[in-house]
Amino acid sequence: MTDAMTPGPTSEDPVLAATGSVPNGPGEPPALDATHHASALLRVSDVRKVYGEGHTEVVAVADATMAVDQGEFVALLGPSGSGKTTLISIVGGLLSPSGGTVTLGGIDVTGLSKKDLTAFRAEQVGFVFQSANLVPFLTARENLLYVASLVKGTSRAQAQARADDLLEELGLAGRAKNLPEQLSGGERQRVAIGRALMNDPDLVLVDEPTAALDTAMGRQVVELLRREIKGRGKTGIMVTHDLRMVEYTDRVFEILDGHLTHVEEPSALRH
Ligand SMILES: Nc1ncnc2c1ncn2[C@@H]1O[C@H](COP(=O)(O)OP(=O)(O)O)[C@@H](O)[C@H]1O
Ligand SMILES: [Mg+2]
């Protein structure tokens, strides 16, 4: 079992060690390889996304500016169609913005080449989607091992040890050999959390993780997410339209018609 209370990556981390990256301790200069761990402060500056053109133009994100610290777990709250998925897809380097910049630990994500962006996503970002999106013909354990194989230099033995630790920690040790269809919705989301953490990313992005779950299961999954993100010193953003999930986060950003605002008083949301 890994020590969930150790903030941030440690040099004993097998996957991290396998990538050949050296995490920055206090006073160390930033890593030379821009796609490797620096510090996880996330800055989103004046991000804009327009889909289509002419009369089919949709301004999905009009202007978004936010900063999230390492160790923070924040909510991105908004109704359906408000631009939440578009915004976190840009933050995670899955989609390029029409304007503005995203930096993580000083790395300009929006300025990375296609090749560096692929490495950045595999090494620095863990995604958890609405429906777990597991590979259907791979077992729970193989779903974790698969993402480790996307990072160059990860040894199979190290990845296996890490996958087993994560599965155990997520209460899935007895489910490791099950295919996704043999798991409950909550278990599938827990596998997705394990997969997101597998490569020890700085940033964990979560899109409506409870949409397919009942309330009790949803709460369990979000509680677990919070514990993992806080305990491991990750930067986490959870997209949700469910006010009840906001209590598990440190701060709330609200998005309406593509306009992002920081909610200063979360209690004002509870009307
Ligand atoms: N690939 C796309 N092409 C055109 N319009 C899109 C695309 N993806 C999303 N949109 C539009 O952008 C807006 C924001 O969508 P989205 O980011 O998915 O919102 P949310 O996740 O908050 O439901 C919506 O009006 C949606 O219809
Ligand atoms: Mg969405």
Write the SSE topology.
Elements: H1 14-18, E1 42-51, E2 58-68, E3 73-77, H2 84-91, E4 99-104, E5 107-108, H3 114-124, E6 125-128, H4 140-149, H5 156-169, H6 185-197, E7 203-207, H7 215-231, E8 235-240, E9 251-256, E10 259-263
Parallel strand pairs: 3-8, 3-9, 6-7, 7-8
Antiparallel strand pairs: 1-2, 1-4, 4-5, 9-10
The structure holds adenosine-5'-diphosphate and magnesium ion.
Keywords:
Rossmann fold, binds adenosine-5'-diphosphate, binds magnesium ion, six-stranded mixed β-sheet, four-stranded antiparallel β-sheet, disordered N terminus, 271 residues, alpha/beta
How is this structure best summarized?
This protein is α/β, with parallel strands linked by helices and 271 residues long.
Describe it.
The protein is α/β, with parallel strands linked by helices. Helix content is 29%, strand content 22%. It has seven helices and ten strands. Strands 6-7-8-3-9-10 form a six-stranded mixed sheet. Strands 2-1-4-5 form a four-stranded antiparallel sheet, covered by helices on one side. Helix 4 runs parallel beside helix 6 (185-197) and helix 6 packs parallel to helix 7. The structure holds adenosine-5'-diphosphate and magnesium ion.
